[in-house]
Design goal:
Structural class of chain B: mainly alpha
Radius of gyration of chain A: 19 Å
Helix content of chain B: 55-70%
Number of strands of chain A: 7
Low-confidence stretches of chain B: none
Oligomer: heterodimer
Largest sheet of chain A: 7 strands, mixed
Radius of gyration of chain B: 11 Å
Distance between the termini of chain A: 63 Å
Shape of chain B: globular
Order of helices and strands of chain B: HHHH
Largest interface: A-B, 17 and 11 residues
Shape of chain A: globular
Largest sheet of chain B: none
Number of helices of chain A: 13
Low-confidence stretches of chain A: none
Order of helices and strands of chain A: HHHHHHHHEHEHEEHEHEHE
Strand content of chain B: under 5%
Structural class of chain A: alpha/beta
Number of strands of chain B: 0
């Protein structure tokens, strides 16, 4: 049965006609969740939205990952939005995140496999429909991996859904790609995702278990280190940054995406101000090359800061000599 | 105007920073430009603070219209 769309939904979908994957995913989402139309409109079709051409490339990867299960991904995305809203209620009431330790996150979130499956599944569509997440991906591609030096060695800390790593793998300038994660299960998911997305031999991609906070005996080996939405999951982001510094070659570059005032089911370290992030980066031996503060969909940076709404702090930095 | 509706209108105007908003029971979030998911959470917290009450999150995350909001305020503020 064909979904009947409102006039606004139809207009939105017509705007996406030239972007086949983006159109298909949006159509499936609006059929299931028509009330989300206004939010999607603000995310995709505002002046400061990610270019639709770029979103289409992300959408193509997501369709590869979703396969026959796009409908389930759509349901999981709505579920994810509802979980995030619950965390927002807690955050605005108590001015803190619900969890504060890795142990709590393991007990309440990571050990619940069904919950984690929905969470990771829903998170994929957030890379398109949450404007600041989409813009983070654009900055990563345009300012970090596309200008990377030929023959460089790339490390991603916490590759998760694999989208960032897939784009890195599609660049020919990296001679090797490595992914580290605390969780063997998460690395398995990343590998399965990369198998679907990446045409380059996945033998070139080394995924291994490594705890970036507690790692020892690290030596310089990577030229580009990427760490997106990881530090807020650690109890000691300073140590994590020091370890990234330790395994980076002289002149190496760091890409960070750190959510500020961003309540989520498994966020434990509360960053209240983007300046705290850049300050820590400088203190751990890096020089800032680029910084951007990305407010959420439909909000200006001024409003986001006024009301402590979530901001993604994007930093590109260079290892000090 | 119903007392609760009147008070709610004042709170909405303050939270959404728009003195032109006029509420009726039939009004939904779709009718008010400022009423997005972030502002809905901020609004419910402001209502809690105003009345000194605490809503179960599950009951206020998805309210259909202003009428439902008024009813739930009355439920928890008047006991």
């Amino acid at each position: 049965m064909t979904a009947q769309f409102s006039e606004e939904c139809t207009k939105l979908l017509n705007s996406l006609q030239s972007y086949e994957s983006l159109h298909r995913i949006t159509q499936a989402l609006l059929a299931y969740w028509p009330d989300h139309q206004r939010y999607i409109q603000a995310s995709l079709l505002s002046e400061d939205s990610s270019p639709l051409e770029r979103l289409e490339e992300v959408a193509q990867y997501i369709e590869l990952l979703a396969g026959e299960n796009l409908q389930q991904r759509v349901k999981d995305y709505k579920w994810l939005c509802e979980r995030f809203r619950e965390e927002q209620f807690y955050f605005f009431r108590h001015k803190k995140y619900r969890l504060s330790t890795v142990e709590e996150a393991i007990e309440q979130v990571y050990s619940n496999h069904e919950y984690m499956s929905q969470y990771m599944s829903g998170d994929l569509l957030a890379q398109i429909y949450w404007r600041n997440h989409a813009l983070s991906m654009d900055i990563f591609r345009e300012r970090f991996i596309e200008p990377a030096s030929p023959g460089a060695r790339y490390l991603e800390v916490g590759p998760g859904h694999g989208l960032y790593m897939a784009f890195a793998a599609s660049q020919q300038n990296f001679i090797s790609l490595t992914g580290w994660d605390l969780s063997a299960t998460s690395l398995q998911d990343t590998k399965q995702a990369l198998d679907k997305m990446v045409s380059r031999s996945v033998e070139d991609i080394l995924l291994s278990q490594q705890d970036i906070v507690n790692a020892t005996n690290l030596s310089p080996q990577f030229d580009y280190i990427m760490c997106s939405e990881v530090l807020e999951h650690t109890e000691n982001p300073r140590k994590a940054l020091e370890n990234m510094h330790a395994c980076m070659n002289p002149g190496g570059k760091l890409f960070l995406n750190v959510p500020v005032n961003s309540p989520a089911p498994d966020h434990i370290y509360l960053w209240s101000d983007p300046d705290d992030v850049s300050e820590l980066v400088s203190q751990t031996g890096f020089s800032l090359l680029y910084k951007e503060e990305l407010p959420p969909t439909g909000k200006s940076l001024e409003i986001a800061k006024k009301h402590d709404l979530d901001i993604l702090c994007i930093i590109i930095a260079e290892k000090n000599a | 105007m119903d007392s609760t509706l009147n008070q709610l209108q004042e709170i909405v105007r303050e939270v959404f920073e728009n003195d032109d908003i006029t509420l009726e029971r039939e009004i939904t979030a779709a009718d008010v430009d400022e009423w997005d998911s972030f502002n809905h959470v901020r609004l419910m917290i402001a209502i809690e603070d105003h009345y000194g009450i605490s809503f179960p999150t599950g009951e206020v995350a998805d309210l259909r219209d202003v009428g439902e909001m008024v009813d739930i305020i009355d439920k928890y503020s008047k006991g």
